[in-house]
Amino acid sequence: MEKFEIGDKVLVIDDGLAAVRKFAPKNARPNNYGTVAEIWDDGKTILVDFPIGRKKDNHSQVAPYPVDQVRKR
Question: Where are the domains positioned within the chain?
């Protein structure tokens, strides 16, 4: 199992995100790339921060994922 730290760049393996990507424009940024925002005390859950919009907007959303669905980029 990979060890994660806050700030690590990650990708999430999720069927729901993959389904949404099918409808995205060809030049769209991958919707499963994010950054580790938090590692829960259970050690089995990672809160991933996903950027939304342009970097200058400084807008994002977070979602929890099981550690086995998260990989370092």
Answer: 9-72
Average pLDDT over residues 24-46: 93
The string of DSSP letters for 5-61 reads -TT-EEEE--HHHHHHHTTS-TTPPPTTEEEEEEE-TTSSEEEEEEEES-GGG-EEE
Helix (H, G, I), strand (E, B) or coil at 70: strand
Q: Cα(10)–Cα(20) distance, rounded to whole angstroms?
A: 18
* CA-based max dimension of the chain: 38
pTM over 0.85: yes
